[in-house]
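Illustration: tRNA N6-adenosine threonylcarbamoyltransferase.
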Amino acid sequence: MTTILAIESSCDETSAAVISNGQLRSNIVATQVIHQKYGGVVPELASRAHQQHILPVVEKALEDAKVSKKDLNAIAFTRGPGLLGALLVGASFAKALALGLKVPLIEVHHMQAHVLAHFIEEPCPVFPFLCLTVSGGHTQIVLVRDALDMEIIGETQDDAVGEAFDKTAKLLNLPYPGGPLVDKYAQQGNPLAFPFPLSEMPGLNFSFSGIKTSILYFLQDKMKSNPQFVEENIADICASVQHTLIKMLLQKLRKAAKQTGISEIAIAGGVSANSGLRAALLEMGEKEHWKVYIPRFEYCTDNAAMIAMAAHFKYIKGEFSEQTISPMPRMAF
Ligand code: KG4
Ligand code: ZN
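Result:
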């Protein structure tokens, strides 16, 4: 039996997971709440919180999996992309543990791991499939030919869609991270109440920076005549913004499916937890005769289970890293 311990520390979640022969045995996530009062992730505070959390999180993951350190065959960690200081904590811990246990080290690309979260539980997509990967830092359409053979065929040219959600929330005075709150209010609102313009990007690329400005001007204009506009219309504003963002995502996804002729369609990343996106994707999937794959909520946002899954595929292929490896905040696919 091959047992791997995986560590994720790219942003504001410290997480550890254990996997044996591709079967997940534990997944512990410690979310850092410290950032809430600053309205966004503060890199230095994130690094310190990772240092505090990493040992208890790893110990709990081993305990839940009923595994001792000497049973481990490899140690995996997120190499990038992410915050340098945050990545360093996970990478240093993983390197030290691998060295001490004399087992191989496996580096994992965070965005590839989001895609591979689809293999934690059945039903799993069939290769080749398309994955719309949507998070706080990325918005990509990925052509997945095999577990370790992926190509980005479309991506954002500016903000990520998660950022658009979070910035909208900030404009509405909602606390960080705003995405889940926009989702919550949107469920009670009218998505067609306020039309916002869709961005026109060529090909399969996205742009989400324009919508933030449109929302800002829209709110400034409305508040001139009614200073209570946001409070009175929060559900309709959230529903309308969310509707626009989802429309932009799904238009390009449909275009990608047409261009590639692929009808196995998956979503991944933090924004795939959005209830409106999940519902709209299922609806489009029925119309377009796609087979749609949506991960469970806990495997959408950052977690080490997906890092462990990616490491499982790399272990099979013997793709190991050297002890001299360092984190890559801007890591290409
Ligand atoms: O993948 P993730 O946990 O971290 C990154 O790698 O960025 O994604 C975090 C992003 C944040 O922007 C957060 O607001 C967004 O995912 N998010 C949501 C929802 N849940 C998380 N956005 C919209 N609706 C949600 N329900
Ligand atoms: Zn992520």
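Reading the tokens back as a structure: The chain has two domains: 3-116+299-317, 124-295.
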